Amino acid sequence: MSNIQKQSKRARLLFQLFFVLTPILVCYFWLTIDTPYDYLTKTGIVQTSFDDLHHITQVPLTPTIRVVAALFSLIYCSIIMYALTKLIKLFRNYENNNIFTLENATIYQKLGYSIFYWVGGSVLYGAIMTVVISFNNPPGQRMLAIGFEGIDFLTLVMGLVVLIISWVMKEACTLADEQNLTI
Question: SS3 for 5?
């Protein structure tokens, strides 16, 4: 087994672990935040923009709000999980020594688009979550916050880079196929 195959297997296993842990940790976060069982944020292992809920809401989160927040978070995390499935497939191909293929170029293209979806989802998610979290506030104190930060712009640039790489790989595959058919 070559070094590429070994490292690809490790990366694939890591992405498979992330795929399983993502929904579990999202649910754990919303069920335990601002409770005595909130070990992840209290120890600093996880840091999110919702760590200090007291800036958004003056009342404790109700079980209904927690479930609704978890559902919207899971919808948003489906973008990550889609990207993880593509990464798992990509590294499985590398593990099988299928490196420069049209299928991998298509996977890169889908990864690039998923990065764009991630940024768009981030803007929507932030707006929806401020409404959900502040829903139990008295009328006139509910919030709607829409944000686009510098890291979102950088993420868009990275998505563009991944898309360009996919286009180059597709063109390289086409040229290699033409060369292989030339007598």
Answer: helix
